[in-house]
Amino acid sequence: MKLDLMVMTVHPDDAELGAGGTIAKYVAAGKKVGIIDLTQGELGTRGTAETRQQEATRAADILGVQVRENLGLRDGFFTNDEESQLVIIRAIRKYQPEIVITNALDDRHPDHGRASKLVNDALFLSGLRRIETVYEGQIQEAFRPRLQLQVIQDKYIQPDIILDITDFWQQKEQSVLAYTTQFNVSSDDDEPQTYISNPAFMESTRGRAAELGRNIQVKYAEGFTARKLLGVQDIFQLL
Predict the structure, then answer these.
(1) Which residues pair with 153 in a beta bridge?
(2) Which DSSP helix (H) or strand (E) runs through 209?
(3) What's the N-to-C CA distance of the chain in angstroms?
(4) What is the 3-state secondary structure (H, E, C) of 87-124?
(5) CB atoms within 10 A of CB 134
(6) Is 9 helix (H, G, I), strand (E, B) or coil?
(7) Which residues pair with 226 in a beta bridge?
(8) β-strand 138-139 against 134-135: which pairing, if any?
(9) Tens-digit pLDDT string for the chain (239 aa)
């Protein structure tokens, strides 16, 4: 299946937190959208790889994506090496997305920035025809997406693009809260409370969306960074 938009992030729940509204918006617009998780998030303080997978499936259903796949890289210990790059190249060539959104350039969690660099390098290499990859016994064609963007995660980074997600905020929030082991957890839970499980974290997530929205005079928005200058054909399409 060829995708219009692929959100390729390192942990299950990164896609929903960083781009859940954007995903829902373009699914509603009829675009083919998929989520690729690089790892199972198995090092997380709360939950297990199995519960994270179940939660990711529920979140994907809420957002209505056509594809959700996990590449099974090692949480916390993946490296930007040939083996990891080839795993990502196969996924890119398999789905041939026009746009890829990945993790923040730099963030509180070291996996985020490292994953962003890994995906960026793999996207470039995916376009080189002399790098041979095989899927289901067939040699894959070289392919490079037209655009890569990065989400803004815990650490605030000045966005290059701000997208109105007001009509899709509730859907985004529901997709995040599908991760019941990770977010909005009461203090009497058996597992340790974490930075993100505290209900205040969801309040700050809503506040970030409102802050970004104010910049373009809407209620809620998501922001993205770009590694390159972005060109437009029609400045009247800009707010």
Answers:
(1) none
(2) helix 199-215
(3) 33
(4) HHHHHHHHHCCCEEEECCCCCCCHHHHHHHHHHHHHHH
(5) 10
(6) strand
(7) 149
(8) antiparallel
(9) 899 999 999 999 999 999 999 999 999 999 999 999 999 999 999 989 999 999 999 999 999 999 999 999 999 999 999 999 999 999 999 999 999 999 999 999 999 999 999 999 999 999 999 999 999 999 999 999 999 999 999 999 999 999 999 999 999 999 999 999 999 887 667 788 888 998 899 999 999 999 999 999 999 999 999 999 999 899 998 87
Q: Which of 182, 37, 194 is nearest to 103 (CA)?
A: 37
Q: Are 101 and 18 in contact (CB under 8 A)?
A: yes
Strands 161-164 and 221-226: antiparallel
- Locus of tokens 């949480």: 75
Contact 49, 41 (CB under 8 A): yes
Predicted TM-score (pTM) of this structure = 0.96
CA pair distance 28, 63, nearest whole angstrom:
9
